[in-house]
Amino acid sequence: MSQNTLNNPTEQKTSKSHPIKISWIIPPDIQLYLSNNDLPKNHDLYDCMEPSIREQLLSMSNRHPPSLLKGNLCLSSCPGKKVRLSGPVRGRASINRDLDADLSRMKSFGITLIVCCLDDYEMELLGAPWPKYREIAAKNDIKVLRLPMIEGSCPETIEEAQHAIHIVNNEMNKGNNVLVHCRGGVGRAGLFACCWLLENSLCDTAERAIAIVRTQRSPKAIETLRQADYIIQYAKSLKQRSKLTEQHQTLTNTTPTMDVIRPFPKTKSQPANSEVAS
C-alpha cells in the first residue's frame, strides 16, 4: 500500500494498492492441529481460539505434524470488483480491481475452488461478468461453484447450502483451500461460512459460528435478521438429522437378525410356525 493511499483514504483502491483481503475461517495454527485430530472433548473452535488452549494445540501439532494438511475455508470480496468509479461517495473510496490479478492472488494461496454467491446480474453490475470470470478462473485452474443469493438474503432451502458444503468438504479433503465470496465477503459469504462450521461440528450453535466469522472476517458479518435466522434453522436441521441418525442406529442395533431368531417350543396354545427372538 502506497504512502499516498495511507494519507488519503479516499484514493482509488486497486488490486495493486490494496491486494484483495483473504480471511481464513480457521486460524492456520489450529488448522494444523485439526488436520490430525478432532477438537478436544467439550470444546468447539471458538474455545480453541482462546490463547492458552490455542498454545496447547500448537504444541501438540508440532510434535505430531500431519501427513496431509487439510484445506481451509476463506472469505473475500468479489474479485475484479469495480464500484464508485466516478469518485468517492460519502467518504468511501472508489474501487477498481483487476479480475486477473485477484484470481491469480487467490491461486497463490492454494485456492482451487470458489463458491460464488452472486447471480449473473450482480456480477455484471460489479464489473466481473460471468463469462469473463469463468474464463480467467479456468486459466488459473480454479473451479467455481455457483450459489447465488439476493443481497441480504440466503439460499432458498437448507439443502442448497448442505449440498454445496458437501462439495467444499470433498475439495478440502484433498488438501485444497476453498474461497467464498459475495459482494463484500461479509453477509452472504459469512452465512455460508457459519453453515460450514456447523456442518463440520466445529461449532455447536449458530451464535458461536457467527462469533467466529465476525472475529475472523468482520464485526459486520451476517448483515440481516433473515441471514441470522437461516443459520439458526441450519443448526436446528443438523440436530434433527443427528437425532434421526441416532434413532436409526439404535433401531439397527436392537433389531434381531436371523442368526439370533430361534423357534419357540411348540405348545397347544402356540401356533407351530410362529417365531420370536430368544
> Care to count the β-strands?
10
Counted up, domains total: 2
The H-and-E topology, N to C, reads as HEEHHHEEEHEHHEHEHHHEE
Annotated CATH architecture of the largest domain: Alpha-Beta Complex
How far apart, in Å, are the first and last alpha carbons?
78 Å
**How are the strands of the biggest sheet laid out side by side?**
2-3-8-6-7
Oligomer: single chain
CATH superfamily of the largest domain: Protein tyrosine phosphatase superfamily
- Please summarize the sheet with the most strands: 5 strands, mixed
Could you estimate the helical fraction of the residues in percent?
40-55%
Write the layout of secondary structure elements.
Layout: H1 3-7, E1 13-14, E2 23-24, H2 28-34, H3 45-48, H4 51-63, E3 73-76, E4 82-83, E5 95-96, H5 99-108, E6 111-116, H6 120-125, H7 130-139, E7 143-146, H8 158-172, E8 177-181, H9 188-199, H10 206-216, H11 225-254, E9 261-263, E10 275-277
Parallel strand pairs: 1-5, 3-8, 6-7, 6-8
Antiparallel strand pairs: 2-3, 4-5, 9-10
For the structure shown, list the relevant keywords:
278 residues; alpha/beta; Protein-Tyrosine Phosphatase, Chain A; 11 helices; 10 strands; 44% helix; globular; disordered C terminus
In short:
GO terms for molecular function: phosphatase activity. The chain is 44% helix and 12% strand.
Task: Outline the structure in words.
By secondary structure, this protein is an alpha/beta fold. It folds into 2 domains: 28-67, no CATH class; 71-82 and 96-248, Protein tyrosine phosphatase superfamily (Protein-Tyrosine Phosphatase, Chain A). The chain is built from 11 helices and 10 strands. The chain has helices at 3-7, 28-34, 45-48, 51-63, 99-108, 120-125, 130-139, 158-172, 188-199, 206-216, 225-254, and strands spanning 13-14, 23-24, 73-76, 82-83, 95-96, 111-116, 143-146, 177-181, 261-263, 275-277. A 5-stranded mixed sheet has the order 2-3-8-6-7, with helices on both faces. A 3-stranded mixed sheet has the order 1-5-4, with no helix packed on it. The N and C termini lie far apart (78 Å). One of its GO terms (molecular function) is phosphatase activity.
